[in-house]
């Protein structure tokens, strides 16, 4: 459930590499139907690492967009075959986010898509105090 108790959170997972899917050891803030609690938070350094599809056009810039930046895209940095960005976030805090390709004329022209190129829900993340790396696999870019 989201921190405010408003809805359920889907199951979460990360890709450790392009073929291996692992469970995330993350925090549960509240249980549906129970009194809401506000857990203690601390500032932690989180590195996002994203694998993007081979169909990503040369010269593209991948952006992180979500609660942590007011849904304003932040450019990620290409490091070899992955894109990265390091953020200072609060532990035990619910974040929604998505990756997209930077596009000046329409910021949401090319958000990350599902395995068939269609719509993909926002990602959800709740980190505990020792979680520092989030590895993501982008299946496709919508509208490409």
Output the CATH topology. Answer: Immunoglobulin-like
Distance between the termini: 33 Å
The mean pLDDT is 80
From the alpha-carbon coordinates, what is the Rg to the nearest angstrom? 15 Å
CATH superfamily: Immunoglobulins
Residue ranges: pLDDT <50 for 5 or more in a row? 12-25
- Which sheet architecture does the biggest sheet show? 4 strands, mixed
Query: Would you list the SSEs in sequence order as H and E?
Result: EEEEEEEEEEEE
Give the strand tally: 12
Number of domains: 1
Q: Please give the CATH class.
A: Mainly Beta
Helix % is under 10%
InterPro entries: Ig-like_fold, Ig_E-set
In summary, what is this structure?
With 144 residues, this protein is mainly beta.
Describe this protein with a few key phrases.
mainly beta, four-stranded mixed β-sheet, four-stranded antiparallel β-sheet, Ig-like_fold
Structural account:
With 144 residues, this protein is mainly beta. The protein has one domain: Immunoglobulins (Immunoglobulin-like), CATH 2.60.40.10. It has no helices and twelve strands. The protein has strands spanning 13-15, 21-23, 43-51, 62-66, 74-75, 77-79, 82-90, 94-101, 112-113, 123-126, 133-137, 140-141. It has a four-stranded mixed beta sheet, with no helix packed on it. The protein has a four-stranded antiparallel beta sheet with strand order 5-4-8-10, with no helix packed on it. Strand 6 and strand 7 (82-90) form a beta hairpin. The protein is globular and about 45 Å long. The N and C termini lie far apart (33 Å). The model is unreliable at 12-25 (pLDDT under 50).
